[in-house]
Amino acid sequence: MAAREEGKRLPRLSGSDGMITSPIVAVVTPFDARGAVDKGALQGYLALLSAAGVKTILVNGTTGEFFNMTLRERVAVLEFCRERWPGQVIAHIGAAAIGDAIDLLGHAQSHTDYVAAISPYFFASPPEEGVCAYFRQLFVQSDLPLLLYNFPRHAQANITPSIVSQLAAEFPLLRGVKDSGKDRGITRQFKAVRPEIQVFVGDDRAGARLSEIGVDGLVTGGGGAVVELPLRIADAVQGDDLEHAHQMQADFDQWSDVRRASPLTEIAFVKAALAARLPGFPPYVRPPLVTATDSQCEEIRSFLRRKMMPLIHP
């Protein structure tokens, strides 16, 4: 995979300053019954998000099952989304092997507005010096602004405020952090050490509390099937109507409660919910994840009809 593709259109940063618009939706990657990427279903999902008012999507992230996709598939999915999405696109390029991440970065240069990279994974608790060295190899080859993606639960490696501070001092293209960790003290430190960067939390329960936490926005994967709710919460927060924001947050939290109580993984749950909203949308996930059964899909569909759809379409 070449470091840069000639002849492709350059990415475009939405807005005069290229700032990311929140909430960011981490999109799923639909697979058909044979396990192939279902581009028709993906197009339908993108249309749903666009109609709801989403401005920014994250492609090939954890919700997109990047961890069990080939590099070729990740490239194809990014190209497909870029061609069909009118707003901002963030492409996740993280990989266990730095060479794979560099290849994905080279391709992304002509197909996205931002890139994001998770910390190198598999080797648990790597030395901070090594994590910095991994990201430096990406920064020196990038013309795109880059977000560091902190997800210690899955990567088994922390992106610390010290790492963010070091790399931001060296590389102006470090524009933000996507923090899917649970420690909000760490989240606040990301912003404290580098106030000029944007910090986004991967926590659906945080939408009405962004100013309290002191961050710039939200990334939702679990909320992708009921995306109207996090969008309305964001609008209320922006309009300084915090009472209404917290009322809607309580409604959105019902969704999170049911999702957490389910034996399904979040990705399988969201795909089952999308199958209820979009006729023909496939609920399938790839191993080691497990697809929702017909009865589980029906339970999710029933909850959507009874509790969520009246909120989405009052």
Question: What does the model show?
Answer:
The chain is α/β, with parallel strands linked by helices and about 325 residues long. It has a domain at about 25-240: TIM Barrel (Alpha-Beta Barrel), CATH 3.20.20. The chain has helices at about 40-50, 70-85, 100-110, 130-140, 150-155, 160-170, 185-195, 210-215, 230-240, 240-260, 265-275, 295-310, and strands spanning about 25, 55-60, 90, 115-120, 145-150, 175-180, 200, 215-220. Strand 7, helix 8 (about 210-215) and strand 8 (about 215-220) form a beta-alpha-beta unit. Helix 2 packs parallel to helix 3 (about 100-110), helix 6 (about 160-170) runs parallel beside helix 7 (about 185-195) and helix 11 crosses helix 12 (about 295-310). It starts with about 25 loop residues before the first strand and ends with a helix.
CATH superfamily of the domain at 24-240: Aldolase class I
The radius of gyration over CA amounts to 19 Å
Note the overall shape. globular
Number of helices: 12
CATH topology of the domain at 24-240: TIM Barrel
Question: Class by helix and strand content?
Answer: alpha/beta
Mean pLDDT across all amino acids: 93
CATH architecture of the domain at 24-240: Alpha-Beta Barrel
How far is the N terminus from the C terminus?
A: 48 Å
Share of β-strand residues: 5-15%
Number of strands: 8
Quaternary structure: single chain
Helical residues, percent: 40-55%
Question: Which CATH first-tier class of the domain at 24-240 would you pick?
Answer: Alpha Beta
Most strands sheet: 8 strands, parallel, barrel
Low-confidence residue ranges: 1-16
- Within the largest sheet, what's the order of strands? 1-2-3-4-5-6-7-8
Order of helices and strands: EHEHEHEHEHHEHEHEHHHH
